[in-house]
Amino acid sequence: MKAGETRTLVKDNTFQKNQKRYFWGKKGEKVKIISISGNAVIYQNEKGKMFPCNIKDLE
Q: Of these four, 15, 22, 23, 25, which has the most CB atoms within 10 Å of its CB?
């Protein structure tokens, strides 16, 4: 996996804070890899917003 590649999310990418759940990405969404650091990945969705996720969550 390299920066600039397009991958698909294998599961929903969510964040939970104070009993509230935020959905950053949906399962099956195609995303572009921006950077990789260890097991963490920063990706950009189709709308141009960037979010972190685990490298295992990408196909």
A: 25
Per-residue pLDDT of the chain (59 residues; tens, 9 = 90+): 888 999 999 999 999 999 899 999 999 999 999 999 999 999 999 999 999 999 999 98
pTM assigned to the model: 0.85
